[in-house]
User: Which sequence fits this backbone?
């Protein structure tokens, strides 16, 4: 006789839900679907040969160390490389501030673990990265949504009440997921000053900063006040996401706590992938590789913008990103992009509705398009189909 095992879920787990959108998007894995939904980097950018050579080198030179347990903080030479790369604009980052994480997604979880109690105030952009909202939600914070415009967080609109007692402010200054927006220099300076004065820690999530199409990069929030900013970086968008390699740069007192939380979570990030990536980075590889990614993405972005102009109705609005992977589209009020997605999938094309990216008061007439995952020739085809549906929805 089969036995039923009884278990009681934690309150935390009871609150977990699988989003309806995720369920719908599962079908986008079918090969016939042209999906602008996923945040997947273009596989054409993965440096396969370079990774193969780096792996061979690791096996030739340090096979046992690469297959052994390692320190929780991460592989020291990789931490030194990261600290050196971020030591610019007059700021010195020490390797002791760097913690290698299993993807920057783990960094979000660790920050939630060490900074959020039930009901703690966490300030987030409107909209913000869905994966961060999910990671933080496990610790049951009270999200405080911050007003944004085309240039990101509207610093002047932040009230003392919003900032009061905030555990941290989660910011995406470069080519934000989901909107593709970038915060200009004066906004960054004003924001860091305001938030530091208010005694609120800044968390800067920056997986897309290097993907500035025209090459110019704005100073990080980290560089403006390393004592009050936790910076999150990732190799997912500049090498490959399957490596699961990211990092946190944190003030030393907080770093120690994050290390303890990471030790409890997974002891350390795989020694193997850390050593391979370290080898792959040698000789300035990223400085040759990243421009290739930028060129490809800038081209695909142009294709999508041109398709939007030709196929979408005049009532739709969107931004022209200067980097990253996403375009944010706002349709007229009254259109629900969740319903539109169901129709789109019937036509074998997909996008992500905007609503889940809002911590509160979702704008259901918004959607996110990724222009990097689908190869160039499919962008036009998919956008044409989507345009027909959007026009019909606007006319209805
Ligand atoms: N932050 C943002 C803003 C992201 O878009 C992503 C990936 N989509 C992550 C963090 C997580 O990246 P990873 O874990 O691959 O480093």
Assistant:
């Amino acid at each position: 006789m089969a036995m039923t095992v009884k278990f009681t879920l934690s309150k935390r787990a009871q609150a977990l839900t699988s989003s309806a959108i995720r369920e719908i998007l599962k079908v986008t894995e079918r090969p016939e679907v042209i999906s602008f939904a996923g945040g997947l980097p273009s596989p054409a950018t993965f440096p396969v040969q370079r990774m193969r050579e780096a792996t061979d080198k690791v096996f030739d030179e340090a096979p046992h160390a690469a297959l052994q347990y390692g320190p929780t903080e991460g592989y020291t030479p990789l931490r030194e490389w990261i600290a050196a790369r971020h030591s610019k604009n007059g700021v010195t980052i020490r390797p002791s501030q760097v913690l290698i994480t299993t993807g920057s997604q783990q960094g979000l979880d660790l920050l939630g673990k060490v900074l959020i109690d039930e009901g703690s105030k966490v300030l987030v952009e409107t909209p913000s990265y869905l994966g961060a909202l999910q990671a933080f939600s496990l610790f049951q914070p009270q999200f405080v949504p911050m007003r944004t415009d085309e240039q990101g967080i509207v610093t002047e609109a932040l009230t003392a009440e919003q900032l009061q007692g905030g555990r941290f402010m989660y910011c995406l200054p470069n080519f934000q997921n989901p909107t593709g927006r970038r915060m200009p220099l004066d906004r960054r300076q004003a924001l860091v000053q305001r938030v530091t004065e208010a005694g609120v820690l800044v968390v800067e999530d920056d997986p897309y900063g290097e993907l500035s199409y025209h090459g110019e990069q704005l100073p990080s929030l980290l560089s403006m006040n390393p004592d009050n900013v936790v910076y999150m970086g990732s190799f997912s968008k500049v090498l490959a996401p399957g490596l699961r390699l990211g990092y946190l740069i944190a003030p030393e007192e907080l770093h120690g706590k994050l290390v303890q939380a990471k030790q409890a979570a997974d002891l350390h990030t795989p020694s193997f992938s850390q050593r391979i990536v370290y080898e792959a980075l040698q000789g300035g590889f990223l400085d040759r590789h990243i421009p290739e990614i930028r060129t490809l993405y800038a081209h695909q972005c142009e294709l999508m913008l041109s398709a939007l102009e030709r196929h979408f109705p005049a009532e739709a609005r969107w931004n022209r990103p200067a980097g990253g992977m996403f375009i944010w589209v706002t349709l007229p009020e009254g259109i629900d992009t969740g319903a539109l997605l169901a129709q789109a999938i019937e036509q074998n094309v997909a996008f992500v509705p905007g609503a889940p990216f809002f911590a509160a008061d979702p704008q259901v007439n918004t959607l996110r398009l990724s222009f990097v995952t689908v190869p160039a020739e499919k962008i036009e085809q998919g956008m044409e189909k989507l345009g027909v549906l959007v026009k019909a929805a606007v006319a209805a």
